[in-house]
User: Which sequence fits this backbone?
């Protein structure tokens, strides 16, 4: 079970602030002062909880931020004060307390961040949000998700989601709260991910050509729910078909038609995503690739390594060693 972790920093040293953000968010992150560097008053409270990283951050002086080749996560910035100018994938967004900016895991990011801006920074691992939207819509989705570049914070689900994130971060950074207990934290974590999946703008439901998949029959949904609820279980096609209430061949045909792969291929992809997420946030001095692989049901390490590299373009050991 994921255990919440909180870290904070107050500093007037730009190099220290830069290293703090690189370690917790992205190794490619570049931060350069635009205003007076002597006025830097960096302040950050950041909490990690499984696939999400929440931060309350301000710099106290004008800065420019560049993030190259975002690939591993979706990201949302919610200004609490001031206005942020963002450029990503050809779109410019002026984010302020009335509008959040959203980043897909593809392409570079450029931010003009003024001294007046304090914001909530929400990082969600790619696989976690994609699985949640896939389940919420009960249909196939493409990766990366074609999300809108921003959403409203004044009315509707955006306001509720931002309030949820802010409350969760406050509770995770305070001592001895109910949310700091792993079981409760896991429920709040799931609410943040599922809430974001239902808040962001996306084309699903409008049936854009080539994007919308068919709605899945109940038998397929039962098998998907079972695998997502317990991916470590040694599932076979036979006991998945029993869960679904149909024969093996019927389930396999339904999966190929409505999911695009066999049940066990889906299960392997699900487990690989979980391994990738755990390696990305683990300490290489305390964790080994084999431990994580075995924990998620991979018993043949050479086959696992080949499948991992085919899916993520790098070896498991590289992910563990080069974690953000």
Assistant:
């Amino acid at each position: 079970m994921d255990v919440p972790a909180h870290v904070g920093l107050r500093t007037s040293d730009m190099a220290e602030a830069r290293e703090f953000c690189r370690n917790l968010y992205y190794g490619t992150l570049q931060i350069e002062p635009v205003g007076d560097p002597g006025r830097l008053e960096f302040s950050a409270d950041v909490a990690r909880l499984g696939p999400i990283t929440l931060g309350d951050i301000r710099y106290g002086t004008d800065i420019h931020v560049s993030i190259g080749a975002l690939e591993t996560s979706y990201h949302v910035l919610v200004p609490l004060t001031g206005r942020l100018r963002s450029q990503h994938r050809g779109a410019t967004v002026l984010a302020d307390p009335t509008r959040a900016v959203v980043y897909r895991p593809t392409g570079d990011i450029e931010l003009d961040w003024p001294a007046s801006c304090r914001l909530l920074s929400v990082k969600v691992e790619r696989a976690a949000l994609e699985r949640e939207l896939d389940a919420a819509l009960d249909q196939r989705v493409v990766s990366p998700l074609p999300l809108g570049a921003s959403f409203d914070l004044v009315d509707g689900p955006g306001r509720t989601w931002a309030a949820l994130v802010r409350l969760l971060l406050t509770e995770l950074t305070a001592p001895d709260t109910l949310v700091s207990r792993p079981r409760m934290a896991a429920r709040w974590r799931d609410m943040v991910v599922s809430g974001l999946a239902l808040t962001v703008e996306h084309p699903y439901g409008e049936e854009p050509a080539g994007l919308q998949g068919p709605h899945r029959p109940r038998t397929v949904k039962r098998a998907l729910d079972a695998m997502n609820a317990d991916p470590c279980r040694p599932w076979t096609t036979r006991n998945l078909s029993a869960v679904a209430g149909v024969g093996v061949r019927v389930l396999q045909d339904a999966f190929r038609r409505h999911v695009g792969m066999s049940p066990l291929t889906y299960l392997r992809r699900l487990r690989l995503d979980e391994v990738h997420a755990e390696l990305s946030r683990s300490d290489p001095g305390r964790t080994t690739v084999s431990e994580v692989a075995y924990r998620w049901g991979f018993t043949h390490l050479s086959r696992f390594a080949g499948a991992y590299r085919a899916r993520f373009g790098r070896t498991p050991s590289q992910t563990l060693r080069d974690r953000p």
Q: What stands out?
A: Residues 205-213 have pLDDT under 50 and may be disordered. The first strand starts at residue 5 and ends at 11. Residues 5-199 form a domain with the Jelly Rolls fold (CATH 2.60.120.10). The chain has two domains: 5-199, 218-321.
